[in-house]
Amino acid sequence: MAEAAEKETRSNEESTDESEEDESEEEPKLKYERLSNGVTEILQKDAASCMTVHEKFLALGTHYGKVYLLDVQGNITQKFDVSPVKINQISLDESGEHMGVCSEDGKVQVFGLYSAEEFHETFDCPIKIVAVHPHFVRSHFKQFVTGGKKLLLYERGWMNRWKPSVLHEGEGNIRNVKWRGHLIAWANNMGVKILDMISKQRITNVPRDDISLRPDMYPCSLCWKDNLTLIIGWGNSVKICSVKERHASEMRDLPNRYVEIVFQFDTEFYISGLAPLCDQLVILSYVKEISEKTEVECCARPRLDIVQPLPESCEEISSDALTVRGFQENECRDYHLEYSEGESLFYIISPRDVVVAKERDQDDHIDWLLEKKKYEEALMAAEISQKTIKKHKILDIGLAYINHLVEKGEHDLAARKCQKILGKNTELWEFEVYKFKEIGQLKAISRYLPRRDPVLKPLIYEMVLHEFLESDYEGFATLIKEWPGDLYNNTIIVQAVVDHLKKDPQNRTLLRTLAELYTYDQRYGRALEIYLTLRHKDVFQLIHRHNLFSSIKDKIVLLMDFDSEKAVDMLLDNEDKISIDRVVEELENRPELQHVYLHKLFKRDHHKGQRYHEKQISLYAEYDRPNLLPFLRDSTHCPLEKALEICQQRNFVEETVYLLSRMGNSRSALKMIMEELQDVDKAIEFAKEQDDGELWEDLILYSIDKPPFITGLLNNIGTHVDPILLIHRIKEGMEIPNLRDSLVKILQDYNLQILLREGCKKILVADSLSLLKKMHRTQMKGVLVDEENICESCLSPILPSDASKSFNVVVFHCRHMFHKECLPVSNTVSSVQFCNICSAKHRGPGSAILEMKK
C-alpha cells in the first residue's frame, strides 16, 4: 500500500466516526466502531490477513506472519511469530484452548494455548486453510484438516502420532473450510462440498454459479448458521442449504444425509463475507463504482447489508457503506467478515482496519433520534426504557427538547413541555423562567408555572405579573384569578395596580382585579365597595363567603339596584343578620324596591311581614296590580276596608268584587259584575261560588230584559236553578240568540241527570243484592264447636265432659257461644235472640242465634 494513500486516508477518515451512514430518515440497524488500542499499533506497521473470533478473545493474523491474541477492546495479550510470510487462516476450537494456523510458505501449526501440546508440519505448497475439530480439547476428537491442493484430515493415533488421510483432491486449491459438529464444508475451484465425518461420506456438491470469476480473487464465503444449515456466498450469489436425513426407503447406495437448497438469491455486489443474524443475513459486499473525475472503475467503500432471505429473492432491511482505511486499494479477497454468535458482534477485517459492528441498543436509538432532532420521540423512548438505558437521562433529553423548541420559536409548546419535563425541580423551573424572560416570552410560560407542589420563589410570580400589568390587563386579571394569593407578595402587587389606576382610574379590569386582591388580603370592605361600584356579579358571592352582612346594611339600595332578585334572596335567606324591619326602612324612599322585597317575603311566608300587609295593598296597586288579587285572597292580615277604599279609588272592579263578597255584601258584588263588567259568565260563576238563592233571583231579574244574558243563563243555570223559573219570566216576542240550542242543551242536561240517577240506582241495587247473598252464604256455613271453646257467660267449656248427657248450646253468627241456660230470658215477643256481647256494642248482622241441641 502506498504511503501517500495511507496518509490521505488517515486525514480524511480518522476525524470522522467509525462508520458513515447515508443521510436518510431510516434508522440504521447496526452501529460501528474501530477496533483500536493494540490493533492500531499492529496495523501501522503490518497488515491484517485473517482473523477468527472466540467469545473470550480474538486472534488476528498478519501479512508478516504474526498471530496476535487480543481482548475484545483490541489490546494485545499474546504474540506468536509463526512465519515470515502471510498468515492464511487461524482456527480455534469451541473451548478456545487450541489454535491451528497455516501460512503462505506451507507451514501448519496446531498447538495448545495453555498446554505444551503442539503439531508442526511444512508442506511444499501454500496452505490456504486449516480447521481444528470443534471439540479438539477432548482426547478422542484430536483432528484437524488442512487445505492446499488437497484436503487432508489429520488424526492423532497410537503413540501420539498424527496420521494424515486425503479427503478430497483434483479440483484445484482448497479455498475455504468450515467445521461444525460432524460436518465439514469446503470450497475449491469447482464448488462447495460437505462431508459427514460419522459416515466419512461426501453428501453434496454445490457447483459454483459464475465460473468467469477467478476463485482466488473472489473467494467463496462459508458460514454455518447452526449444525444443519450452511450459508454459501460466492460472487454475487447466496445459497442457504439445509442438511436433512434421508428416509430409510431411499437409502440404497446413497449417503444417509442429503442437502436441500432452501433459499437462493443474487446480490447487487460481490460477496466478501456472510454471517447470520436471527432469521436474517448480514452480508459484507465488495463494491466497484465509476469515478466521476476519471470515469474509470475504482474500488468504493464496502457495504454491510442486512437482508431478509426469501425463497427466490431477498428483502433489504438496512445497508451501510463503511469507511475503512485504504478501501481504495482493497480487493474482494482482502475483506473478511467474522462474528461472535452469542453477542451479535460482527468484525469487518481489511488489511489496514478492523471495524466492529453491533446491534444498536436503546441508547443508540435515542442518539439517532436526537441527531435527527426528533426530541419528542427520543423523550418517549427514554421514558419507556428508563430502566435499561445507560447513556442518556430523561431530564437531559427533556431540556434539550425545550431548548430546541425555543430555538424554533415554538415558545408555547416549549412552556407546556416544561410541566412534564421539569416536574418538581424548582431550580430548573426558575432557570427556565429567567431564560423565557431573556427572550421576552414570560407570557408564554405563565400559564404553566407550578402553583402547588412545588411552589417557586414569590419573585418569579411577581415578575410574571408585572410583565402582564405593563402590557396586558386582561391577562393580568386572569392570572390573579387563577393563582392562589399566597404565591406572591400581595402588598407589592396591590400597590402596582393602584399606581396604574392613577393613570386610568376608570379601568374596569384593573378595578375588578384590585377587588380580588383586596379579597385575598382580607380587606373585604374595600373589595365590596369596588364590586358594588362595578355592579359585579361576584358581589353576592363575596358577601356570603366572608359573611359581610354587617357591611351591607347601608348598601341595600345599591344591591337592589344591581340585581334585585339576587339581593332579595340573599336578604331573605339571612333574616337573622339583617332584619325585615331594617330592610323595609332602608327601602323607604324606593317603594318599587320595597314592593319587590315584601312581595317575595309574602310568597315565602304569608305571616312574617303581616305588619306591612296594609302598606303592600298600596304597593301592589301601584306597581304590581296582577298580583293584588292573589295577595288579597291569601292574606289574612290586610284591613279589608282599607283595601276596598283603595280599589274603589282606582276603580279595580275585580278586586272590589272580591272584597265586597268577602265582607258579606254579595249582592253589591254581583251588581258590580253585571253593571261594571257586564260579564254574564263571571256573574254566573260568582253566583255558583256563593250558592245563594237570592243571588240567583237577582241575577235573573237583572238579565230578564237582556237577551244575551238570558242565553248565558239558559246554558249554565240548569244544574243550580230550575230553568222553568227563568223561562216563565221571558216576555213573549223577545228575540233570544241561540234559544233553540239553549233549550236543547237544557233537555240534554236533564236527560243526562235522569240517566245518571238510573245508573246509580241499578248499581246500588246490584251491590246490595250481591252483598246480601254473600252474607247469607256466610251465615249458612257450619261452625266448629269443640272442647277448646268456652261459654262467654260462665267461661266454662262449652261441651260437657260427659258426652252422654244432653246439652243445649247457643252459637251466634258472630262466633260467640253460650250455654242456653246461661243466656238471659228475652223480654221481647220476637223469638230471635242476639249475642249479649255484640248487642252491647251495636246490633247488626252476625249477632243472630244459631241453636245447637243434643
Automatic annotation (TrEMBL):
<dbReference type="GO" id="GO:0031902">
    <property type="term" value="C:late endosome membrane"/>
</dbReference>
<dbReference type="GO" id="GO:0015630">
    <property type="term" value="C:microtubule cytoskeleton"/>
</dbReference>
<dbReference type="GO" id="GO:0008270">
    <property type="term" value="F:zinc ion binding"/>
</dbReference>
<keyword id="KW-0479">Metal-binding</keyword>
<keyword id="KW-0072">Autophagy</keyword>
<keyword id="KW-0963">Cytoplasm</keyword>
<dbReference type="InterPro" id="IPR057780">
    <property type="entry name" value="Beta-prop_Vps41"/>
</dbReference>
<dbReference type="GO" id="GO:0008017">
    <property type="term" value="F:microtubule binding"/>
</dbReference>
<dbReference type="GO" id="GO:0030123">
    <property type="term" value="C:AP-3 adaptor complex"/>
</dbReference>
<dbReference type="GO" id="GO:1902774">
    <property type="term" value="P:late endosome to lysosome transport"/>
</dbReference>
<keyword id="KW-0653">Protein transport</keyword>
<keyword id="KW-0472">Membrane</keyword>
<dbReference type="Pfam" id="PF23555">
    <property type="entry name" value="zf-RING_Vps41"/>
</dbReference>
<dbReference type="GO" id="GO:0016236">
    <property type="term" value="P:macroautophagy"/>
</dbReference>
<keyword id="KW-0458">Lysosome</keyword>
<dbReference type="GO" id="GO:0005794">
    <property type="term" value="C:Golgi apparatus"/>
</dbReference>
<dbReference type="GO" id="GO:0005829">
    <property type="term" value="C:cytosol"/>
</dbReference>
<dbReference type="GO" id="GO:0034058">
    <property type="term" value="P:endosomal vesicle fusion"/>
</dbReference>
<dbReference type="GO" id="GO:0006623">
    <property type="term" value="P:protein targeting to vacuole"/>
</dbReference>
<keyword id="KW-0863">Zinc-finger</keyword>
<comment type="function">
    <text>Plays a role in vesicle-mediated protein trafficking to lysosomal compartments including the endocytic membrane transport pathways.</text>
</comment>
<dbReference type="InterPro" id="IPR036322">
    <property type="entry name" value="WD40_repeat_dom_sf"/>
</dbReference>
<feature type="compositionally biased region" description="Basic and acidic residues">
    <location>
        <begin position="1"/>
        <end position="13"/>
    </location>
</feature>
<dbReference type="GO" id="GO:1902501">
    <property type="term" value="C:lysosomal HOPS complex"/>
</dbReference>
<dbReference type="GO" id="GO:0071439">
    <property type="term" value="C:clathrin complex"/>
</dbReference>
<dbReference type="GO" id="GO:0030136">
    <property type="term" value="C:clathrin-coated vesicle"/>
</dbReference>
<dbReference type="InterPro" id="IPR011990">
    <property type="entry name" value="TPR-like_helical_dom_sf"/>
</dbReference>
<keyword id="KW-0813">Transport</keyword>
<protein>
    <recommendedName>
        <fullName>Vacuolar protein sorting-associated protein 41 homolog</fullName>
    </recommendedName>
</protein>
<dbReference type="GO" id="GO:0030897">
    <property type="term" value="C:HOPS complex"/>
</dbReference>
<dbReference type="Pfam" id="PF23556">
    <property type="entry name" value="TPR_Vps41"/>
</dbReference>
<feature type="repeat" description="CHCR">
    <location>
        <begin position="568"/>
        <end position="712"/>
    </location>
</feature>
<dbReference type="InterPro" id="IPR016902">
    <property type="entry name" value="Vps41"/>
</dbReference>
<dbReference type="GO" id="GO:0042802">
    <property type="term" value="F:identical protein binding"/>
</dbReference>
<comment type="similarity">
    <text>Belongs to the VPS41 family.</text>
</comment>
<keyword id="KW-0862">Zinc</keyword>
<dbReference type="GO" id="GO:0031901">
    <property type="term" value="C:early endosome membrane"/>
</dbReference>
<dbReference type="GO" id="GO:0009267">
    <property type="term" value="P:cellular response to starvation"/>
</dbReference>
<dbReference type="GO" id="GO:0008333">
    <property type="term" value="P:endosome to lysosome transport"/>
</dbReference>
<keyword id="KW-0333">Golgi apparatus</keyword>
<keyword id="KW-0967">Endosome</keyword>
<feature type="region of interest" description="Disordered">
    <location>
        <begin position="1"/>
        <end position="33"/>
    </location>
</feature>
